[in-house]
Amino acid sequence: MSIGRRGAVVLGAAAVVLAGCASGPEGGARTPPPLPTATTGGGSPAPGTTAAAPGRPRTLATGLRTPWAIAFLPDGDALVTERDTARLLRVTPQGRVTPVGEVPGVRPGGEGGLMGVAVSPSYDRDRYVYLYFTAADDNRVVRFRYDGRSLGEPRPIVTGIPKGSNHNGGRIAFGPDRLLYVATGEVYRTELAQDRGSLGGKILRVTPDGRPAPGNPFSSPVWSYGHRNVQGLAWDERRRLYATEFGQDRFDEINLIERGRNYGWPRVEGVQAGGGDRYTDPLLTWTTDEASPSGLAYADGSLWAAGLRGKRLWQVPVGPDGRAGRPIAHYEGEYGRLRAVVRAPDGALWLTTSNHDGRGTPAEEDDRILVIPLG
After folding, report:
1. Given Cys at both, which of 36, 104, 162, 324 links 200, Cβ 3.0 to 4.6 Å?
2. Residue 328 CB neighbour total at 10 angstroms
């Protein structure tokens, strides 16, 4: 099933007032050409959507430095990456933070560094932890054994992902099919997004040892292409994959990801004019000042997208057919830039701030992990 023009929700009433600023790298402000008046479509939730309100956040951990990603171990503890320090941390549900160690080979800089983390779906047997980071010559995914105290020797399993100062992608996650999905950016080399021979500007799908997964559309690691800078991955209970993506001057996106589809960058930003089937339209768009969406989670019938420049948590109700209802903003401006959001084993959301990333204004407790009750 593809969601075309009629399935996209476009938010942009603020575009006229805020036309002077647009999303640069990770939501950094810059001045684009004037924007036309944006229209709002899909104002009513899709049939069957619900939007139960989340509870008030509580602070779980403080004093972190640009926490980028969170993945849970079977015992309920979480592994948390810090982009700029290259540290991997272990955080308990009670808020105890223990450094696991500094990951060797990481070369932080700009938007690069230690980014995604994923725990093997067979962790009880194999003890594998996967990390995505910027190395000396590329972005890469490596696999370690983790004995509960320290990391073993790294084994690169996906290499040659283009690196740059910005747009390094970085999110990794195991899907319901127990395969590893890897979100990459086009590092401002826009031609890479349409080049199916490049790993830049793509969502990759690989086996746990890094080989192209069976059923991939191009006999390569590539699952979908035409992406600018994918920052979040999440699946709903029907095994549908959604992804957040930074726009340029006009629209940030959530996309419903389907095998082999072309999501249009750099030829299209947002919904394509005139329709057509060559490119897949986003499920939903925001103006760039409202979002710069990074982490993405699915819980209780909604997608939850953490906004960097938007400084809010977006809730997007999703119907049984995969269509999006009208998004709801939570905690706008209360915690600054928001980076990672994941569903914890107990059903709550864990949310990180990103105010030490060079674009925020850190508060005394920043960066921190917040816990948000649902239901």
Report:
1. 162
2. 16
